[in-house]
Design brief:
The chain is α/β, with parallel strands linked by helices. The protein has two domains: 49-136, D-Maltodextrin-Binding Protein, domain 2 (3-Layer(aba) Sandwich), CATH 3.40.190; 144-335, no CATH class. The chain is 64% helix and 7% strand. It has twelve helices and five strands. It has helices at 2-18, 20-40, 81-89, 112-125, 144-175, 177-182, 188-218, 226-248, 254-271, 283-289, 293-305, 311-335; strands at 49-54, 73-78, 95-98, 104-107, 133-136. The protein has a five-stranded mixed sheet.
Length: 339
């Protein structure tokens, strides 16, 4: 019995290490995750307080305030106070300081860290007559679930789009389906367009089901326009589907396609702010995140659901994602091979 068990054991091990793509991915993937987290959080230790500062032009270079010299206080500049006030209400900012003309500040009395920031502010100005004018605002803290769900929906769209097209088309090529389609009048652009439309319908229906389930279970906030949210997710899905088609244009095996798709998707998950805010990440990580399409899907969805953005406000994200999707689709049609 043990001889038979050992024979199967050896055969299975040989099968594993002869699959070079799978072997390499099992070794490389954990290393990449460790390096990615080290890259994202390679900056200085996180600040204790987060304070918004309103100036006339949104710049702090020419402004002077003793409060801003306190260590471990993260400064977020604003040119207008409205966005900062909304964040103070939701406890996303501990305090908002207005340096335009007469000094003033907004604080939420229900925020524990906001009260600490206020005491530091008053202590920094010394005499009571020199302290900025207090403007209290009220609001409940934004739940982590409310903040993270838009990103989870975007991440689900990304995975479903990439694997639902990239991996499946490669399987078609390996199984000979594409070879048979080559004998028909079907052109590569027509075939890929059909794949895009089919996957788009599946992704949107699945995302709607997930959203409705989360809404029933958690009571998610929806302060913006449903049309705006739909446009963001449609444009994002089209972009991700087209990216999956780029992967599928030439690859011949599902194992290699799986590795490439993981290589594309996981950096986006880590660097697009799905699970955690990148405001405390290194400047290099923040700059790199702006090159990833998932970042614009997540940011657009959060602006709609949490900040109340409408269609006009998210048009830059929709236009960018839609433009990238069109370019990628045309490139995929150009590079596509039936065999």
């Amino acid at each position: 019995m043990w001889r038979r068990v050992m024979a199967i054991f050896v055969a299975r091990n040989r099968e594993f290490y002869r699959d070079t793509a799978g072997l390499a991915w099992n070794i490389i993937m954990p290393i990449m995750l460790v390096l990615a987290f080290a890259f994202v959080f390679s900056g200085e230790p996180a600040d204790v307080l987060k304070v918004g500062v309103v100036t006339a032009d949104g710049e702090l270079a020419d402004e002077a305030s003793p409060f801003l010299e306190i260590p471990h206080v993260q400064i977020v500049p604003y040119s207008e106070p409205d966005a900062g006030i909304a964040k103070v209400q939701r406890h996303q900012l501990d305090l908002l300081l207005d340096l335009r003309g007469a000094l003033g500040y907004w604080v939420n009395p229900n925020s524990a860290t906001g009260n600490i920031a206020e005491r530091l502010l008053l202590g920094a100005y010394g005499a009571p007559g020199a302290a900025p004018q207090r403007r209290a605002v009220a609001g409940e803290a934004l739940r982590y679930a409310d903040w993270v769900v838009p990103g989870i929906l975007a991440m689900n769209i990304m995975f479903s789009s990439l694997w639902g097209v990239g991996w499946v088309v490669v399987r078609y090529r390996k199984n000979g389906v594409l070879r048979r389609l080559k004998a028909t009048p079907l052109t590569p652009l027509e075939f890929l367009s059909a794949q895009v439309l089919s996957r788009l319908m599946v992704v949107l229906v699945a995302s709607l089901v997930v959203y409705l389930g989360a809404e029933l279970a958690l009571g998610l906030p929806m302060r913006g326009s449903y049309l705006a949210l739909g446009l963001v997710y449609v444009a994002g899905a089209l972009c991700m589907i087209s990216l999956g088609l780029i992967v599928a244009t030439r690859l011949r095996t599902e194992e290699l396609a799986d590795g490439v798709l993981n290589l594309i998707s996981w950096p986006m998950v880590l660097l697009s702010g799905v699970w955690f805010s990148l405001e405390g990440a290194s400047p290099a990580a923040q700059a790199l995140s702006r090159l990833l399409p998932l970042t614009y899907i997540v940011d657009g969805a959060r602006r709609v659901m949490i900040d109340g953005a409408g269609v006009v406000a998210v048009l830059p994200e929709v236009a960018l994602l839609g433009g990238v999707a069109l370019v990628l689709l045309l490139v995929a049609a150009r590079l596509f091979r039936w065999e």
